[in-house]
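Model the whole thing, not chain by chain.
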Amino acid sequence: MLSQRAATLYRACRGLSQGLSAVGIHQPRHCNRLAAVLINPKYRCYATEVNDEEDFLQPHAALLRSDLNKVKRIVIKLGSAVITREDECGLALGRLGSIVEQVAELQNQGREMIMVTSGAVAFGKQKLRQEAVLSMSMRQNLNSIESGGRPPTLEPRACAAAGQSGLMSLYDAMFLQYGVKTAQILVTKPDFQNEHSRENLRETISELLKLNIIPIVNANDAVAPPPEPDMDLAGVISVKDNDSLAARLASELNSELLVIMSDVDGLYTAPPGMPDSRLLHTYSPDRDQVIIAGKSRVGTGGMDSKVKAATYALARHCSVVICNGCEENAIVNIVKGKKVGTFFTNAVHKGTPVELQAKKAREGSRKLQALSGMHRAAIVNRLADLLLERQADILAANQQDVQEAFAEGMQQSDMARLYLSEQKLETLATGLRQIGTDSVDAVGKVLQRTQMAEGMVLEKISVPIGVLMVIFESRPDALPQVAALSICSGNGLLLKGGKEAKHSNKILFSLVQEAIEPFAPIDTVALVSRREDIADLLHLNQYIDLVVPRGSEELVTRIQQQSQGIPVLGHSEGICHVYVDQDADLEMALHIVKDSKCDYPAACNSMETLLIHKDHRHSLFFDKMCEMLRLQGVTVHAGPKLGQVLKFGPSLAASMKTEYGSLECAIEIVEDLDEAIEHINKFGSSHTDSIVTNNDESAAKFLKMVDSACVFRNASTRFADGYRFGLGAEVGVSTSRIHARGPVGIEGLLTYKYVLTGTGQAASDFSAGKEKFIHERLPLISD
Amino acid sequence: MLSQRAATLYRACRGLSQGLSAVGIHQPRHCNRLAAVLINPKYRCYATEVNDEEDFLQPHAALLRSDLNKVKRIVIKLGSAVITREDECGLALGRLGSIVEQVAELQNQGREMIMVTSGAVAFGKQKLRQEAVLSMSMRQNLNSIESGGRPPTLEPRACAAAGQSGLMSLYDAMFLQYGVKTAQILVTKPDFQNEHSRENLRETISELLKLNIIPIVNANDAVAPPPEPDMDLAGVISVKDNDSLAARLASELNSELLVIMSDVDGLYTAPPGMPDSRLLHTYSPDRDQVIIAGKSRVGTGGMDSKVKAATYALARHCSVVICNGCEENAIVNIVKGKKVGTFFTNAVHKGTPVELQAKKAREGSRKLQALSGMHRAAIVNRLADLLLERQADILAANQQDVQEAFAEGMQQSDMARLYLSEQKLETLATGLRQIGTDSVDAVGKVLQRTQMAEGMVLEKISVPIGVLMVIFESRPDALPQVAALSICSGNGLLLKGGKEAKHSNKILFSLVQEAIEPFAPIDTVALVSRREDIADLLHLNQYIDLVVPRGSEELVTRIQQQSQGIPVLGHSEGICHVYVDQDADLEMALHIVKDSKCDYPAACNSMETLLIHKDHRHSLFFDKMCEMLRLQGVTVHAGPKLGQVLKFGPSLAASMKTEYGSLECAIEIVEDLDEAIEHINKFGSSHTDSIVTNNDESAAKFLKMVDSACVFRNASTRFADGYRFGLGAEVGVSTSRIHARGPVGIEGLLTYKYVLTGTGQAASDFSAGKEKFIHERLPLISD
């Protein structure tokens, strides 16, 4: 009799050789012999109950998604729906290949992968059907075609037997592409209840894993009768069976992660397809409050057995993800911690789930809207007070941010934005009070009044948009400013600040909550802490009405792409122009160009391209302009036309669409005003463009035809700014064309509603001619 | 010596057996013998020059994408980049599997598929590397690890030889999943120039195709020296070689379609990554005008040889698609006519390419904006005249639509919308004239004036949005209305109408062009004829500023998802409520409910849910209301609360979020005003909601707290309409929350710009304290 260890090794080798057997090409000598072995019960593995606690590894602590990259032993369960094509014509090779690629990649990273797979019946069906057709007589064949072409009926067990070898050989051939070996383990459900065979199974698999071999586990359908003899393909390898098999296996083997792949995306709050049905990213069987909004229904699209299996494994310290096997790179992404499928965990969430934040902001916004303008202003005044009262705490938190940013080598100009001072806080407080005072009447203002008919008045009234999400850069003073604008306009707010300012943002945010508390729910304004939450929030168009991303054009584009129906008020680049006209005051031109370019080159409203009328090309003015820019340290590039006429001097501009954002600019010569306008409309970003001219006609044409949010005459482009425009502060500078353009203050955060007051009118009375429309514009009562 | 036919058959069988040989599992008897045959030059296929024109099939007429589903013989060329993983660790099995699935699917549809594949070297490299490591001594192995772990150097030709059998066996095993057999053809470039061998090649492949076998063609790298001995993997099987091989093959075989798959999406207008770089969906080598905007540069990311090969094949009547092999279902989608990759064709486009339409609408919009309001009104007045002058033609075209729609079984209510009459045209003309008159001052209106500082005035001025795209249902009178609103607001316009109204739309559109002609370019307004063009237009955010989809919520959602940064002014469902308050005038309530539900049940502003205060539940009024609805033929459903108290009577409403759009509505009982408001905000669609009450306080609360675009007191919901609101007409009813809410007329199609007139100010003068802001609101000059 073999020793325990030897017996285990023997079983491991047997499993391996069974696996290898399938790969006729690579191991032809095993080809025929072992194909028979596979369905010989003698070599089947048995599982046993193990009660000895020492046999188990230390139970794992509850994991978060972000911990999954540390996971070592992973069980992957593939459902039939993943492996077979939607049209049921054989295997879905694309998906299967991709899964093999991913499993091999993870195995080659040093993890221990175990696969539980369905699909042998599907594989065998295809194989046997051909043979059955070939072995039919021609007459049988013709009869079959006449009777509707029904393919010959195939016995599922025969399909399984025929398919098992082929499926394994395919797995083996595929895994060999990545230098990974596989072994085959066939089990039946009854075997699993035998104590002794369970132990054997565990040891066999452990041994295989030590040898860096992937065990591929399948139900031994050839000998195990299908649960219901008349069920269809999916029923034969009952999903329930393989799910629970995988869960049992995962817990037996102390696996840390079980991935159950099928053709649904995961667990839903309601049956998929129903309104409000939403994929749960995280599910804790023990804690119902994870399911938001009181919805405790769980979609039952064949999910019951999966949830049961997942709960079973989770109770045994194995995290589980139920996901869609058709999703690209699902396995690798799960291990990377990405939000794929539904994650079963007992881990307690840090912080409030984002959906709840959004929902509470919506509820809070209704309360805020119901307040009077005076009360909203009082919140902001209190916030201004708190900024001064808690000055020491704020500056200490900010100091921490500054030190950390310095240690990480943040750029000088970014540091200046991050840094808060007593002076800055004082200016900030003054600004907030101004916003409060100015906005008292902003909400609920009558914008238009129309006498629609006798006894019927239509009013257009300003109302808050609802809930805003503002994503802002690492500039902590933006937080109270944006919060003040949002509160004064009656909007709920979700804030996501740059992570470099996290300590400052945290304390500033707590002050916002403190200021709100006496008047409205504190979660009317919420701080979103994690970057990955943004993508989730962009799906919640039932709670969020407008997204304002402040930052790079790349950020804006990404947000636009991720947004599911929530409008984005984008601030893209600022390619601003100054055009020096034929009739310009040349001293003024020098003054304006100097300010537009050099006052704050990193700002979006600073000049990037200087357009000069051709008449100035050979004047003293041109030389003076170049000299001024040189003295200011501005690197000049020539546009194509200027480049042609210059024999030497500045390098050619790579593109006329460059936002330099530094002491660098392009100069181009234009033939006339029309060419200047055309140039700006073609290469500009519709932000801010200025003409320097004493000619009223030229100015009028420029101001009318230049297609930008801000068009200036005889003024620096730097004036395009919420504060300078008299808006108090700005949520951002919009380069969108609808809703709000240019610097966006309170007004840009409002929309309107139509309020109609009648005396019982019906539309049919008008179409019947009994009543008549008047449509007379009435004077506004206030304003 | 064999006869010609016998020789061909012999070669075909040889190719087949070579293919079969690779499938050791299925055909184990061939296993070892034929692995050697593969690199034996004796069995190689040779190609010959054929000059006899009769040998060619009839050259195919130039194809459009939509013709590709009729294509029978297809050559698929897979580049190394498709077959190997990005990290160069072996084959990309997921992609390869998916491609095999698609090719098999098309073959099983009865098409003739031919594959040209790279990848043998990659395959062999992986195989040989393991063997090399195994055959190294332990010391060599350690040395190799110490010296940075560089893997042993492998000879590319050896890799190719070792890889060829494995690659073929893999293809064969994969294709067998779908019951498809393959055969292997190895060719070298020099062979291809031999006239005799070319003929043999063609006949061999034709024979294989007749036998329903897929020929898999590869360069015989084992015997052909790589072009550059020191080049990397991609260089060994030079992409150029296999591209031109595939093109030669495709033209030799009179294939109708060649798909060249690599890791780029297709042909770009500029190197990918550059601004303005854009994928060309269609490319005609002969006609440069397909490349719009004068850009004739073609991205050169390894594209040269592909374009050369594609041009070669196209000149020989084989359409070509260059696409990304990583794109899901690329091959099947190409054959379905979808816009995947770049389509090389000599076919002449029908109509103007949509990008050109959008660009011209943008240019036209600038001209339109430069006109005076009087001129824009003159266009619309002329259009009104034309509607009456050409009445007979319009009605004849409309009659054609109506007849076709009737033949196709259009519903009665849709027919009513489609149908035009003299009366309708007259009303339409009157409406247009009104729009013209009302809008004369709409553009360029001063909305706000601020004294920013001494000598510096800031004005906020209404301007057109730019270019609109309006997608509207099969209601031809919408075309002149939308055109009029757009023209009067100075916007360019792309129109896409329902196809059922195509004849009517065509003539109405021609009248719009006729009216525009004297004042602005006729293509300021354009008609988009094909539905699939919409997806393309939604990418052109440089030309289109706002999309207004009128129609189902599903349409709106789809447009939102497809839009690449173009805002969508959505009109989703109208779930409108009437709430009968405790203090309502009950006669008035009956009148308003009747009108709201029954006046035009299909309209979005008709009532779907009636909320009744609980005090009315047991009153005569409740019975009267039910009786009135019954008499009007309205099917009533009970909300959950009403359902609980009713012992018998109406069925329960499936959901309180249903838009019935017919003589059907829900009734629900509410405890009080607050519950009514909550119900509406929760289940409504923020469209239009009305309260019937005599209590001013209740009314004020309802009008303030109900979060809808239109909130009414004592008036029917049916008044929410552009005409009834006095806007002349409407582009649609917006349920978006920003920019424009409710019925959208001229004002909703305008945005604003800030115009700043200074006297030479610089921002730095203000920050230095030399100048001070005033920020005083000035009176508006007009209005």
